[in-house]
């Protein structure tokens, strides 16, 4: 599924692109459940109607999903049946976290890498960290990569330069076997430039092009699913570009597996790692094994995740109340003569 609109989707079959209208059962299923709506990256079952049109009958089960809003996938066991979330992209295999080596005058932001990694883990896809614009930091690159590696334990990490093409082949290898990727990263991280380098042609408008063309031009068709010449797909949707920090407590645990592991060694099981005796986290901080910055980052993301969870709970509760009000009302209605 390359692009989705209200009531119809642009689907790619072995013989090209087709517009497929949603079949009635699918339309009905999506009324109460936005998660059941087709989205970019979905695989679908189609029927070719006698008159040559295509109809979209069903979506095949998703392997992975970027879900925005509502309840996370795990909290309610599975994607469907959750009436609140919206799937931004389905069946993504690889999530590239793109962080520029130099952003303005700042070196790569480790906190941002950790945050995007958490999001990537949450989707079920495999994260890979890319330090983009590697040409901008000269001999500082090696040290920078060491720092990033410490913030992304157990995750593949590569330096890429879309200008010289260095590292682009390594990135392409992650897409072998026709895998599907999304690229997360701040504005100006070099995502579009990288997609162009991967595609070997200008498929995406970059900031440079946008700036020199001026605003208000709408000639470029925004492509949301970009097939690469050497195999593999990149999904780039406005939703994925804006994706924030949603229900990511499990993701946070995975990104900070080293701290979680330390915490198991603390004398008290409910240790807050503030000033408790026998705190393994504070000991690691003392010995230099755990960088102060990383502990701070963990605390910050945990606070955010907790806040998100509370907000989600509140919304769930109010929706639940609303639902019951409607049911009560209709029962009262039926009771009347
Ligand atoms: N020196 C250098 N500059 C780069 C590299 N990759 C991208 N740039 C420049 O960085 C700027 C931003 O690149 P884009 O690819 O438009 O960034 P983006 O992440 O797609 O940005 P948004 O579309 O705003 O999200 C452009 O001026 C690029 O020319 C690189 O490897 N080295
Ligand atoms: Zn502790």
TrEMBL record:
Domain CP-type G: 82-243
EC number: 3.6.1.-
SUPFAM superfamilies hit by this protein: P-loop containing nucleoside triphosphate hydrolases
This protein's record includes keyword DNA damage: no
Cell location: Cytoplasm
Main location: cytoplasm
Keywords annotated in UniProt: Cytoplasm, GTP-binding, Hydrolase, Metal-binding, Nucleotide-binding, Ribosome biogenesis, RNA-binding, rRNA-binding, Zinc
InterPro entries membership: G_CP_dom, P-loop_NTPase, Ribosome_biogen_GTPase_RsgA, RsgA_GTPase_dom
Chain sites annotated for binding GTP: 132-135, 185-193
List of residues binding Zn(2+): 266, 271, 273, 279
EngC GTPase domain: residues covered: 90-241
Cofactors named for this entry: Zn(2+)
Cofactor remark: Binds 1 zinc ion per subunit.
Pfam families per the UniProt record, alphabetical: RsgA_GTPase
Purpose of the protein: One of several proteins that assist in the late maturation steps of the functional core of the 30S ribosomal subunit. Helps release RbfA from mature subunits. May play a role in the assembly of ribosomal proteins into the subunit. Circularly permuted GTPase that catalyzes slow GTP hydrolysis, GTPase activity is stimulated by the 30S ribosomal subunit.
Stated family: Belongs to the TRAFAC class YlqF/YawG GTPase family. RsgA subfamily.
Subunit-level organization: Monomer. Associates with 30S ribosomal subunit, binds 16S rRNA.
Protein name in the entry: Small ribosomal subunit biogenesis GTPase RsgA
Organism annotation: Sphaerisporangium flaviroseum
């Amino acid at each position: 599924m390359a692009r989705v609109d209200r009531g119809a989707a642009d689907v790619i079959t072995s013989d090209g692109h087709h517009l497929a209208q949603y079949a009635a059962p699918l339309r009905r299923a999506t009324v109460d459940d936005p998660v059941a709506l087709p989205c970019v990256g979905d695989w679908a079952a189609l029927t070719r109607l006698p008159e040559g049109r295509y109809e979209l009958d069903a979506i095949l089960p998703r392997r992975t999903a970027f879900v925005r809003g509502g309840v996370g996938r795990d909290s309610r066991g599975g994607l469907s049946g959750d009436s609140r979330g919206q799937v931004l992209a389905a069946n993504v295999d690889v999530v590239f976290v793109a962080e520029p080596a130099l952003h303005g005058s700042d070196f790569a932001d480790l906190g941002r890498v950790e945050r995007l990694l958490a999001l990537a883990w949450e989707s079920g896809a495999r994260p890979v960290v890319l330090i983009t614009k590697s040409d901008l930091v000269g001999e500082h690159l090696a040290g920078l990569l060491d720092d990033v590696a410490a913030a992304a334990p157990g995750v593949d990490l590569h330096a890429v330069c879309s200008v010289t093409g260095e590292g682009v082949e390594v990135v392409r290898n992650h897409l072998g076997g026709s895998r599907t990727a999304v690229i997360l990263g701040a504005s100006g991280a070099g995502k579009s430039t990288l997609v162009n380098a991967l595609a070997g042609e200008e498929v995406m408008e970059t900031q440079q092009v946008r700036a020199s063309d001026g605003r208000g031009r709408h000639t470029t068709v925004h492509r949301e699913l970009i097939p690469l010449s050497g195999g593999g797909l990149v999904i780039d949707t406005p939703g994925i570009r804006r994706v924030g920090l949603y229900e990511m407590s499990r993701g946070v645990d995975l990104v900070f597996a080293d701290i979680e592991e330390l915490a198991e060694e603390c004398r008290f099981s409910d240790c807050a790692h503030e000033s408790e005796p026998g705190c393994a986290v504070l000991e690691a901080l003392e010995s230099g094994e755990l960088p102060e910055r990383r502990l701070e980052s963990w605390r910050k993301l945990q606070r955010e995740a907790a806040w998100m969870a509370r907000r989600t709970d509140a919304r769930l509760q109010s929706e639940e109340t609303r639902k019951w009000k409607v049911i009560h009302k209709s029962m009262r209605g039926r009771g009347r003569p």
